[in-house]
Amino acid sequence: MKRIILLFTVIGLLSTGYAQQPKNDVLKFQKPGYSYYRDVIMKQIKEYYAKQEQKHERQYPTVDLSGYDLPNKKNLYKYYWHNPPISQGNTGTCWDFSTTSFFESEVYRLYGKHVKLSEMWTAYWEYVEKAREFVRTRGKSLFEEGSESNAVTRIWVKYGVVPESVYIGKPKDMPFYDHSKMVREMKDFLKGVKKNNLWNEHFVVMTIRQIMNKYMGEPPQKFTVDGKEYIPKTYLKDYLKLKLDDYVDIMSLKQFPYWTQDEYPVPDNWWHDKSYYNVPLDVYMEILNNAIKNGYTVVIGGDVSEPGFDRNTQCAIVPTFDIPGQYIDENARQFRFSNHTTTDDHGMHLVGWTNYKGTIWYLIKDSGSGSRYGDPKAPEFGYYFFREDYMKLKIMDFMVHKDAIPKQYRKKMGL
Q1: Domains of the chain: which residue ranges?
Q2: CB-neighbour burial class of residue 140 (10 A; exposed 0-12, middle 13-18, buried 19+)
Q3: CATH topology for 74-413?
Q4: Which end of the chain is more exposed for a tag (fewer CB within 10 A), N or C?
Q5: For residues 103 and 298, what is the distance between their CA atoms, to the nearest angstrom?
Q6: Which region among 8-12, 265-269, 345-349, 357-361 has the lowest average model confidence (pLDDT)?
Q7: Buried (b) or exposed (e) across 178-193, using 16+ Cβ within 10 A?
């Protein structure tokens, strides 16, 4: 009897095995649904910390310009042709946007051509040059986003330039430029290079380019404009026809002898360029005003982190609680530069001027976020309005065509 029961048990197990064939599980993709951890716990934790940060949010002293009669309307200014302001997005490339805008205006002033040039072409090759210098100096050279106006001319001489239409330097569907991840990845790579003594220039440059190609796209080497094929250098030489040697950089610092050329001593001058003409402050302002009153635009660089910089009105003045206007001279300017209360933190394009009730004001085209207040459709969106005292104390250098400099000063500068 036991044998019969055992036999039926074995037969039952065998038949069950044949009846239930193994089933392959199928992988599928689905969007994450409700998560108590994410949607409740983490959400409420973030809300708590956000409220705490608001309670302890840092406040900055700034001038109160409410009730002032200010020339902060674009139509009050005489200005020269320039492309509309565009945003540099989340990048530290104001030096590039401002100087590119300047050269677009120069092409129009000289030849009557409307062009839109690629800022990202210049930024791309500037990072390549920064990587080269990082290797050459064994990691001592600065690798950051900032630079100076004459970096643009230096890059164009070596690599040429291209229209924006053939190299925008970002994904087409990305609304604004964002270099945060790209720069972080490049800097992390260079930290590894330094840590492991991997000082192979070809390897470093190729890796930096691979990172940029991923985020910005690879720059073109050939393109067509108006039915004619160009490479970047021939586009500069034959189409834009810009003579880059005609552009000079001017500063006014008491720490250097006047009427000599020297290095502009700021971190963004990372390649230690010594071509800046150093002139007395009254000459500095005379050259600047002579240029903007006679049809030239100017690239300017200086400090926009000031209590006299009012974002709401988009105006910049030197308030009396900083220093009364009659005391602004080369000593006050040098003192603030030396103790770092004046910094070189932004590049802009000076495109116009006005004499408003006896005081000179300047119209400044800007690529940064600070000039973008109010209605995006307003004519003033993307501009600043600087009073002359602000320019005199806080704008530390500018680039201009040499013909905009009065002859007596050109002679002293050897131009």
Answers
A1: 74-413
A2: exposed
A3: Cathepsin B; Chain A (3.90.70)
A4: N
A5: 10
A6: 8-12
A7: ebeebbebbeebbeeb
